[in-house]
Amino acid sequence: MYRFEEIWGNQRLLSHLRMAVKNQKTSHAYLFIGGSGSGKKMIANTFAKYLLCATNQDEPCDTCESCRVFESGNHPDVIYVTSQKKTLGVDEIRGQILETVDIKPYHYNKKIYIIQHAHTMTVQAQNALLKTLEEPPEYVVFLLLAEKTEAFLPTVLSRMVTLKISPLSEEEIHRYLVGKKLVAPEEGGFFAAYAQGRIGHALELIEDTAFRQMREDILTQMSQLQSMRLSEALLLAKEWEIFKNDTRFLDIIALWYRDLMAAKSLRDERFIIQKDKKDLLYSAAKEPTEILAKKSAAVTKAKERLIQNGNFRLTIEVMLMELKENGAQ
Ligand SMILES: [Zn+2]
Fold it and tell me: What residue intervals traverse the membrane (predicted)?
Protein backbone atom coordinates (compact mmCIF):
# COMPACT_ATOMS: atom_id res chain seq x y z
CA MET A 1 0.00 0.00 0.00
CA TYR A 2 1.21 3.48 -0.76
CA ARG A 3 1.96 5.25 2.50
CA PHE A 4 4.75 7.64 3.47
CA GLU A 5 5.64 5.49 6.47
CA GLU A 6 6.42 2.65 4.06
CA ILE A 7 9.15 4.68 2.40
CA TRP A 8 12.63 4.46 3.85
CA GLY A 9 15.14 7.25 3.66
CA ASN A 10 14.53 10.55 1.85
CA GLN A 11 12.62 11.89 4.84
CA ARG A 12 13.34 15.57 4.06
CA LEU A 13 11.93 15.19 0.60
CA LEU A 14 8.81 13.46 1.93
CA SER A 15 8.14 16.10 4.53
CA HIS A 16 8.54 18.76 1.85
CA LEU A 17 5.83 17.03 -0.21
CA ARG A 18 3.53 16.62 2.77
CA MET A 19 3.87 20.23 3.84
CA ALA A 20 3.14 21.42 0.32
CA VAL A 21 -0.15 19.52 0.33
CA LYS A 22 -1.10 20.61 3.84
CA ASN A 23 -0.38 24.25 3.06
CA GLN A 24 -2.02 23.96 -0.36
CA LYS A 25 1.16 25.11 -2.01
CA THR A 26 1.72 22.30 -4.44
CA SER A 27 3.39 22.94 -7.74
CA HIS A 28 2.00 21.87 -11.11
CA ALA A 29 5.01 19.78 -12.02
CA TYR A 30 7.52 17.73 -10.08
CA LEU A 31 10.56 15.98 -11.45
CA PHE A 32 11.76 13.02 -9.40
CA ILE A 33 15.35 12.16 -10.20
CA GLY A 34 16.86 8.85 -9.15
CA GLY A 35 18.53 5.76 -10.59
CA SER A 36 16.52 2.72 -11.57
CA GLY A 37 15.19 0.98 -8.48
CA SER A 38 15.78 4.01 -6.25
CA GLY A 39 12.15 4.26 -5.18
CA LYS A 40 10.96 7.18 -7.31
CA LYS A 41 7.86 5.32 -8.47
CA MET A 42 6.90 4.47 -4.91
CA ILE A 43 7.39 8.09 -3.81
CA ALA A 44 5.51 9.55 -6.78
CA ASN A 45 2.59 7.15 -6.32
CA THR A 46 2.32 7.86 -2.62
CA PHE A 47 2.40 11.58 -3.31
CA ALA A 48 -0.29 11.23 -6.00
CA LYS A 49 -2.52 9.22 -3.68
CA TYR A 50 -1.97 11.80 -0.94
CA LEU A 51 -2.79 14.68 -3.27
CA LEU A 52 -6.10 13.04 -4.14
CA CYS A 53 -7.06 11.86 -0.66
CA ALA A 54 -10.29 13.46 0.56
CA THR A 55 -9.11 13.77 4.15
CA ASN A 56 -6.29 15.98 5.28
CA GLN A 57 -4.10 13.79 7.46
CA ASP A 58 -0.41 12.90 7.66
CA GLU A 59 -0.88 9.88 5.46
CA PRO A 60 -3.30 8.93 2.70
CA CYS A 61 -6.32 7.79 4.76
CA ASP A 62 -6.92 4.48 2.94
CA THR A 63 -10.64 4.73 3.67
CA CYS A 64 -11.92 7.46 1.33
CA GLU A 65 -13.08 6.42 -2.10
CA SER A 66 -10.11 7.98 -3.84
CA CYS A 67 -7.56 6.11 -1.69
CA ARG A 68 -9.34 2.82 -2.26
CA VAL A 69 -9.58 3.28 -6.02
CA PHE A 70 -5.97 4.42 -6.17
CA GLU A 71 -4.69 1.13 -4.81
CA SER A 72 -6.57 -0.75 -7.52
CA GLY A 73 -4.48 1.06 -10.14
CA ASN A 74 -7.59 2.31 -11.94
CA HIS A 75 -8.02 5.76 -10.50
CA PRO A 76 -9.89 7.77 -13.13
CA ASP A 77 -7.91 10.92 -12.40
CA VAL A 78 -4.46 9.36 -12.48
CA ILE A 79 -2.95 8.85 -15.90
CA TYR A 80 0.24 6.83 -16.29
CA VAL A 81 2.02 8.05 -19.40
CA THR A 82 4.11 5.31 -20.97
CA SER A 83 5.64 4.36 -24.28
CA GLN A 84 6.04 1.04 -26.09
CA LYS A 85 9.19 2.37 -27.70
CA LYS A 86 12.58 3.24 -26.29
CA THR A 87 11.71 6.90 -26.26
CA LEU A 88 8.73 8.95 -25.22
CA GLY A 89 7.81 10.75 -28.41
CA VAL A 90 5.52 13.53 -29.44
CA ASP A 91 2.76 11.02 -30.28
CA GLU A 92 2.65 9.71 -26.73
CA ILE A 93 2.61 13.22 -25.29
CA ARG A 94 -0.20 14.27 -27.61
CA GLY A 95 -2.29 11.13 -27.28
CA GLN A 96 -1.86 10.54 -23.57
CA ILE A 97 -1.62 14.10 -22.25
CA LEU A 98 -2.51 16.97 -24.56
CA GLU A 99 -5.75 15.43 -25.82
CA THR A 100 -7.12 14.92 -22.31
CA VAL A 101 -5.54 17.66 -20.25
CA ASP A 102 -8.42 20.09 -20.71
CA ILE A 103 -11.00 17.58 -19.53
CA LYS A 104 -11.72 18.29 -15.89
CA PRO A 105 -11.12 15.59 -13.27
CA TYR A 106 -13.95 13.06 -13.02
CA HIS A 107 -14.47 12.86 -9.31
CA TYR A 108 -11.75 14.65 -7.52
CA ASN A 109 -10.23 18.08 -7.54
CA LYS A 110 -6.93 17.05 -9.11
CA LYS A 111 -5.86 15.24 -12.21
CA ILE A 112 -2.43 13.68 -12.07
CA TYR A 113 -0.20 12.64 -14.92
CA ILE A 114 2.64 10.33 -13.94
CA ILE A 115 5.22 10.31 -16.71
CA GLN A 116 7.50 7.29 -16.39
CA HIS A 117 10.97 7.18 -17.98
CA ALA A 118 10.61 10.90 -18.59
CA HIS A 119 14.33 11.16 -19.40
CA THR A 120 13.57 9.35 -22.67
CA MET A 121 11.34 12.20 -23.88
CA THR A 122 12.49 13.47 -27.24
CA VAL A 123 13.14 17.18 -27.78
CA GLN A 124 9.96 17.41 -29.87
CA ALA A 125 7.98 15.72 -27.11
CA GLN A 126 9.35 18.15 -24.54
CA ASN A 127 8.50 21.09 -26.75
CA ALA A 128 4.99 19.72 -27.21
CA LEU A 129 4.57 19.51 -23.45
CA LEU A 130 6.14 22.88 -22.74
CA LYS A 131 3.11 25.04 -23.40
CA THR A 132 0.98 22.99 -21.00
CA LEU A 133 3.73 23.14 -18.40
CA GLU A 134 3.76 26.92 -18.77
CA GLU A 135 0.02 27.33 -18.46
CA PRO A 136 -1.43 24.21 -16.91
CA PRO A 137 -5.12 23.94 -16.06
CA GLU A 138 -5.29 24.60 -12.34
CA TYR A 139 -6.31 21.03 -11.43
CA VAL A 140 -3.37 19.37 -13.21
CA VAL A 141 -0.24 18.00 -11.53
CA PHE A 142 2.56 16.39 -13.54
CA LEU A 143 4.88 13.93 -11.83
CA LEU A 144 7.86 13.10 -13.99
CA LEU A 145 10.13 10.18 -13.11
CA ALA A 146 13.59 10.32 -14.60
CA GLU A 147 17.10 9.01 -14.14
CA LYS A 148 18.91 12.22 -15.02
CA THR A 149 18.23 15.94 -15.34
CA GLU A 150 20.56 16.44 -18.32
CA ALA A 151 17.93 14.91 -20.57
CA PHE A 152 15.66 17.94 -20.23
CA LEU A 153 15.53 21.25 -22.04
CA PRO A 154 16.32 24.17 -19.71
CA THR A 155 12.90 25.65 -20.50
CA VAL A 156 11.19 22.45 -19.38
CA LEU A 157 13.37 22.08 -16.29
CA SER A 158 12.62 25.61 -15.17
CA ARG A 159 8.89 24.77 -15.03
CA MET A 160 9.28 21.89 -12.60
CA VAL A 161 10.26 21.40 -8.99
CA THR A 162 13.22 19.01 -9.14
CA LEU A 163 13.53 16.51 -6.31
CA LYS A 164 16.58 14.26 -6.06
CA ILE A 165 16.01 10.84 -4.54
CA SER A 166 19.04 9.72 -2.57
CA PRO A 167 20.07 6.09 -2.52
CA LEU A 168 19.76 4.35 0.83
CA SER A 169 22.81 3.15 2.72
CA GLU A 170 23.57 -0.55 2.88
CA GLU A 171 22.54 -0.57 6.54
CA GLU A 172 19.19 1.04 5.74
CA ILE A 173 18.45 -1.51 3.02
CA HIS A 174 19.59 -4.30 5.30
CA ARG A 175 17.29 -3.13 8.09
CA TYR A 176 14.42 -2.74 5.66
CA LEU A 177 14.77 -6.22 4.13
CA VAL A 178 15.18 -7.94 7.48
CA GLY A 179 12.55 -5.78 9.21
CA LYS A 180 10.02 -6.66 6.53
CA LYS A 181 11.07 -10.32 6.80
CA LEU A 182 11.87 -10.43 3.10
CA VAL A 183 15.11 -12.29 3.73
CA ALA A 184 16.73 -14.09 6.64
CA PRO A 185 19.00 -11.80 8.72
CA GLU A 186 22.18 -13.61 7.54
CA GLU A 187 21.18 -13.17 3.90
CA GLY A 188 20.33 -9.48 4.25
CA GLY A 189 23.94 -8.34 4.00
CA PHE A 190 24.43 -9.84 0.58
CA PHE A 191 21.31 -8.33 -0.97
CA ALA A 192 21.93 -4.94 0.67
CA ALA A 193 25.51 -4.84 -0.62
CA TYR A 194 24.54 -6.05 -4.03
CA ALA A 195 21.71 -3.54 -4.47
CA GLN A 196 24.04 -0.52 -4.02
CA GLY A 197 21.45 1.73 -2.43
CA ARG A 198 18.62 0.84 -4.77
CA ILE A 199 15.90 -0.76 -2.76
CA GLY A 200 13.86 -1.72 -5.82
CA HIS A 201 16.88 -3.56 -7.13
CA ALA A 202 17.22 -5.49 -3.86
CA LEU A 203 13.54 -6.47 -4.03
CA GLU A 204 13.90 -7.68 -7.62
CA LEU A 205 16.93 -9.78 -6.78
CA ILE A 206 15.19 -11.42 -3.84
CA GLU A 207 12.38 -12.50 -6.17
CA ASP A 208 14.78 -13.62 -8.86
CA THR A 209 15.20 -17.35 -8.25
CA ALA A 210 17.57 -17.73 -11.21
CA PHE A 211 19.88 -15.13 -9.67
CA ARG A 212 19.79 -16.86 -6.29
CA GLN A 213 20.57 -20.20 -7.91
CA MET A 214 23.43 -18.64 -9.87
CA ARG A 215 24.86 -17.29 -6.62
CA GLU A 216 24.64 -20.68 -4.91
CA ASP A 217 26.32 -22.44 -7.84
CA ILE A 218 29.08 -19.88 -8.23
CA LEU A 219 29.91 -19.82 -4.52
CA THR A 220 30.06 -23.61 -4.36
CA GLN A 221 32.39 -23.64 -7.36
CA MET A 222 34.53 -20.88 -5.88
CA SER A 223 34.89 -22.77 -2.60
CA GLN A 224 36.17 -25.79 -4.55
CA LEU A 225 38.43 -23.86 -6.89
CA GLN A 226 41.66 -24.24 -4.93
CA SER A 227 41.37 -28.02 -4.78
CA MET A 228 40.64 -28.35 -8.50
CA ARG A 229 43.30 -29.16 -11.06
CA LEU A 230 43.92 -26.29 -13.47
CA SER A 231 42.42 -28.28 -16.36
CA GLU A 232 39.30 -28.83 -14.30
CA ALA A 233 39.10 -25.17 -13.30
CA LEU A 234 39.35 -24.04 -16.90
CA LEU A 235 36.26 -26.04 -17.75
CA LEU A 236 34.34 -23.52 -15.69
CA ALA A 237 34.90 -20.99 -18.46
CA LYS A 238 32.84 -23.22 -20.73
CA GLU A 239 30.20 -23.86 -18.11
CA TRP A 240 29.81 -20.15 -17.39
CA GLU A 241 29.10 -19.35 -21.03
CA ILE A 242 25.43 -19.40 -20.03
CA PHE A 243 26.19 -16.15 -18.16
CA LYS A 244 27.65 -14.51 -21.24
CA ASN A 245 25.11 -11.71 -21.15
CA ASP A 246 24.94 -11.49 -17.39
CA THR A 247 28.17 -10.26 -15.84
CA ARG A 248 26.55 -10.39 -12.42
CA PHE A 249 28.31 -13.72 -11.88
CA LEU A 250 31.56 -11.76 -11.76
CA ASP A 251 30.12 -9.45 -9.10
CA ILE A 252 29.32 -12.54 -7.07
CA ILE A 253 32.91 -13.75 -7.47
CA ALA A 254 34.26 -10.29 -6.56
CA LEU A 255 32.16 -10.27 -3.41
CA TRP A 256 33.46 -13.74 -2.58
CA TYR A 257 37.05 -12.48 -2.57
CA ARG A 258 36.09 -9.37 -0.66
CA ASP A 259 34.59 -11.55 2.06
CA LEU A 260 37.52 -13.97 1.99
CA MET A 261 39.81 -11.05 2.74
CA ALA A 262 37.58 -9.99 5.62
CA ALA A 263 37.48 -13.54 6.96
CA LYS A 264 41.24 -13.91 6.64
CA SER A 265 42.52 -10.62 7.94
CA LEU A 266 39.88 -9.46 10.39
CA ARG A 267 38.57 -12.67 11.88
CA ASP A 268 35.52 -10.73 12.95
CA GLU A 269 32.17 -11.83 11.64
CA ARG A 270 30.82 -8.29 11.56
CA PHE A 271 32.99 -7.48 8.56
CA ILE A 272 31.70 -10.36 6.49
CA ILE A 273 28.92 -9.23 4.17
CA GLN A 274 27.65 -12.66 3.23
CA LYS A 275 26.99 -13.95 6.70
CA ASP A 276 24.85 -16.74 5.29
CA LYS A 277 28.04 -18.17 3.78
CA LYS A 278 30.39 -17.60 6.67
CA ASP A 279 31.26 -21.29 7.24
CA LEU A 280 32.13 -21.70 3.59
CA LEU A 281 34.20 -18.50 3.71
CA TYR A 282 36.12 -19.38 6.86
CA SER A 283 37.06 -22.79 5.53
CA ALA A 284 38.20 -21.33 2.19
CA ALA A 285 40.11 -18.34 3.60
CA LYS A 286 43.55 -19.90 3.56
CA GLU A 287 45.65 -17.66 1.37
CA PRO A 288 47.39 -14.48 2.52
CA THR A 289 45.44 -11.25 2.07
CA GLU A 290 47.86 -9.89 -0.58
CA ILE A 291 47.18 -12.90 -2.78
CA LEU A 292 43.44 -12.53 -2.28
CA ALA A 293 43.67 -8.85 -3.20
CA LYS A 294 45.45 -9.77 -6.43
CA LYS A 295 42.76 -12.29 -7.27
CA SER A 296 40.06 -9.79 -6.57
CA ALA A 297 41.77 -7.39 -8.99
CA ALA A 298 41.81 -10.16 -11.62
CA VAL A 299 38.02 -10.42 -11.34
CA THR A 300 37.60 -6.67 -11.78
CA LYS A 301 39.87 -6.77 -14.82
CA ALA A 302 37.85 -9.60 -16.36
CA LYS A 303 34.63 -7.66 -15.88
CA GLU A 304 36.12 -4.60 -17.58
CA ARG A 305 37.24 -6.74 -20.52
CA LEU A 306 33.81 -8.26 -20.93
CA ILE A 307 32.15 -4.85 -20.79
CA GLN A 308 34.49 -3.80 -23.62
CA ASN A 309 33.32 -6.86 -25.56
CA GLY A 310 36.39 -8.95 -24.91
CA ASN A 311 36.19 -12.60 -25.94
CA PHE A 312 34.24 -14.33 -23.18
CA ARG A 313 35.95 -17.70 -23.07
CA LEU A 314 39.45 -16.24 -23.30
CA THR A 315 38.81 -13.56 -20.69
CA ILE A 316 37.36 -16.03 -18.20
CA GLU A 317 40.13 -18.55 -18.80
CA VAL A 318 42.77 -15.91 -18.13
CA MET A 319 40.93 -14.91 -14.97
CA LEU A 320 40.66 -18.52 -13.79
CA MET A 321 44.40 -19.01 -14.31
CA GLU A 322 45.06 -15.96 -12.17
CA LEU A 323 42.66 -17.22 -9.54
CA LYS A 324 44.41 -20.60 -9.52
CA GLU A 325 47.87 -19.16 -8.95
CA ASN A 326 49.03 -20.01 -5.49
CA GLY A 327 51.33 -17.07 -5.02
CA ALA A 328 54.31 -19.33 -4.25
CA GLN A 329 56.56 -17.91 -6.95
ZN1 LIG B 1 -8.01 9.01 1.47
Answer: none
